[in-house]
Amino acid sequence: MALAASSTTRLWTLVAKEFWRKTRRRLRAGPVYRWRYSGRTPERVLIAPPDLRLADPQIALEIYYGRYPLSGHLVETGGKSPFQINVPNHGWQKTLHGFRWLRHMRAAGTELAAANARALVSDWITMHGSHISGIAWEPGTTAKRIIAWLQHSSVVLQGAEFPFYRAFLKSVAMQIRYLRSMAREMPDGKDRLRARIALAFAALSLPAPASALRGATRNLAEELDRQILADGGHISRNPMVVLEILADLLPLRQTYANQAETPPQALIGAIDRMLPALRFFRHQDGSLARFNGMGATIHDRIATILRHDDTAGAPLLHAPHSGYERLSMGGTTVIADTGPPPPVDVSNAAHASCLAFELSSGRQHYIVNAGIDTYGAAEFRPLARATAAHSTATINDTSSARFSHSLRVNDLLGSPLIGGPQHVQCKRTDQKGVQGFIARHDGYVARFGFLHERELKLSSNGNVLAGRDRFQRPGSAAIRNNGRDFVTVRFHVHPDVNLLQDEHDRLVLAADQADTWVFTSAEVVPEVEESIYFAGLGGPRRSRQIVLAFKASEIAEVHWQLTRTSIAGYPENN
């Protein structure tokens, strides 16, 4: 009861903070404050920072013909400016106003693409440049737009006449002043960090006094030290955030160098920690493990970032500050969530995934989490975030953390995760020829009185993953058969893997031209049920899951094993 009350108190404190923040934002967008965003217009852009994000000239052509494939949705404008039409998809609108799609015009490299980029920027300035409201002026979107306009200023300003050149610089300056006034009060998380990155880009790319650069550098360093953990993860525990922030930090480091300025040590240190962290979350096929907001992976994007990684050797196996463990040998990779939920302020994308794991062998994934459909319907997000969508255990079909709130809360905050595990203990058990860990969480203690403990061991050159799931009361008291002790341990199978039964009634996981794995369980007969894999590149896909269902009062501990019986379709040489 005390834990529930504490969670509720934290939630309503967050609601009050967000309500006050939005009230102040509306006030600062009003006529009383707006004069603060006017001032001297820069004379020119000193330098256009590089952009590491992938570009496609074909998308520039689509945009020229009025087709905007943004945020997973295609919108045809019918000859109108995209800023004139009302599109109900929030993600599409945020992407439109963020202007990252300017990189496709740069990649096209034609006068036609440059003219179209200039026309669209002009449309935005005319329709939204002086009216500070709506999605266009959300601070996170404004930060993206400032970075994009600076990075692709050479394309936007190519062949521009003086009136547009002046209007462009005036609008950039106004947006920078607005973002500077909002940054300190932005909600915690990646948008606030990106705002500091955008202001550092601006201080380097535009004529500014030395004090402006010093201030931007100092604020950036403080935010990096606070948000980037000692092992390179982000406080949100989302692997995708590591990738997204690196895509901004690496060009920023280069921009400091190009301007003969010394980057802050916090920037250098953050990049040096984050690059190995990105490798930590990678399976051998290049995709990132699906935890805490991670969906489908665009492999080329990661490859582009990792070209800047000068570290040598295998990825780290232990990320204690981020709350993850990695087992890797003989072409087998296991990545597991062994941490508590992130702070409430940055938990909108967090999952109830404690002690879940993924297993890949070679370039094929076998056991996965459902992940999220990044551009899909919002109503499916709670399903993807639930514990049942992960390869771990649930008790009484209940998630180990709560993220469903009233409509008022969701409208204001999104859907922060609360009431999850408070204490997660984890210990490595590596020995010669064996990698492993034991972890335990208390996410079910408040509601059902159970601790969940999981032990994983990878051995025999990566051919055997042995698992143990144990359920106990604090203090090792006996578990009573009271109808609230039903346990389901799930193993979600990747949709590209066939799940068969051999002549010994064992479950066989096989894929074309890939390894074959056999699943066995000592105490419980495994069952096969339908599942759904949200993180497919083409959207959700039907899949299956292996399920161990039992009562903890009758079976308090289960042992299971995944054994690789052949490699790439050929018998192993034992």
From TrEMBL:
InterPro entries reported in the protein's UniProt record: Chondroitin_lyas (IPR008929), Hepar_II_III_C (IPR012480)
Subcellular localization, as worded in the UniProt entry: Periplasm
Domain spans labelled Heparinase II/III-like C-terminal: 313-561
One GO cellular component term noted in the UniProt record for this chain: periplasmic space
GO molecular function list: lyase activity
Source species, domain of life: Bacteria
Key words of the record: Lyase, Periplasm, Signal
The protein, known as: Heparinase II/III family protein
Provenance organism: Mesorhizobium ciceri
